[in-house]
Amino acid sequence: MFNMKTSDLFKRAKQLADLEGSDFISWNEAENCINESFVSLYEKLINMGDNSFVASFRTKEKELELPSDFWQLKGVYLWNNGNLQTINRRADNNGIHHLSYEMKNGKLFFYGNPNDILVEYYIKPKKLFMPPMDHEIVLDLPEGAEVLACYAHTFVYKTQDEEENNIIGVYDIDGIKNAFDILESFDESKIWINKDFVFTLYEGDLIVYDLATGETYTFADSVPLITESGDLFVIQDGNICELIFNGDTYATRPVKEFVVYTGAYYFASDDTFTDFYALVNDDGANVIYHNGETTEQNAKAIIYNKEKCFYVAINKAGYLEIDKEEELVNKLIKTGIGSPIGFVGINENTGYGYVAKKYNKFFVCAYCEDTDLDFPNSFYYQMLSYLLAIAFRCKQGADITLLSSQLEMVSQTFEDTLGNDAFQFPRMGNVYN
Fold it and tell me: I want to staple 266 with a disulfide (CB 3.0 to 4.6 A). Which of 271, 276, 279, 310 is the partner?
């Protein structure tokens, strides 16, 4: 196994393309080029006969859904006590009584009444992530101010007045907003911000400060819910309610029944209210729950994005998601030295997701990890480096003749190592999902 990181691949490709020290390729362009090149290479190598990414399963069903990680079919066989007989794809002029298979609309169909079938397929190439470098931001805050939460470029902080009373302020990094003492009562461990409001839970009530009008509103016996789109809803009287401004104040309108479970004080969900994560006070600890079940992960802030729950905790950041085995998995994001504060939002165009304080400075940090390139051998890394370098040179409008010839040599060397059996039949084509 050949272990490198996606960032190592990017550095090598820049060397080959004579782009060291250059910002000509943006982070978003680089990540797109890396994944496009990887898929191109993946296709090239499996067409050569490389079996490094083959999975298989046996079935007795006559019709089944393709696996979630299916990319391309390798072969279908009749299993007979360990002996294999190749099953061919059904010809258009064959009936359903011939021993054959067919793949259409994301399903496999088996004809001729086979009893036991082995299916081999190539798995989907994984998406490669490369985190951008931490980006320092300058916050013009009062001396000694403590940042409590953030959203996009707006920050909520705690400071003190001349009489040493705690007050809450809002600061926009673009200088649009700078309000002080926005909430008369607040719980600094339960204060949040979204695109429209700053809100806090205080003595069982939800207190909401409108960033646009500067007015404060109170919703008795309510709990906040933030959707994937960043909208604030309130949960009260057994319902999820949307906020409706009627000219003077906000009214609530029920949109879905929902009962808050014991200890839950903050919810994040998809826009259809079908998948919920919550912060729950569980014996004094703030624990993430998923659809009513504990994940045992502590957190101080969560955000829902594309079926994942991103979280920040003390000196830790990560995300929870359901994997292909329908199991909830917890993946950490390496934060280095520093303490995550909150989210600026998961931005796939920049790669940034959260804010952390490091060395008494503030940084916007990546939401993704540097993917391990657990390739079966070094040829993958070499060929992908050249493919990526060629893509970079093409963006420059530069000559790619030398890089193309070097790629061809590496590719030929790899093909020579495969050692195909002289009696192996050509792989079936036109079998994509």
Answer: 279
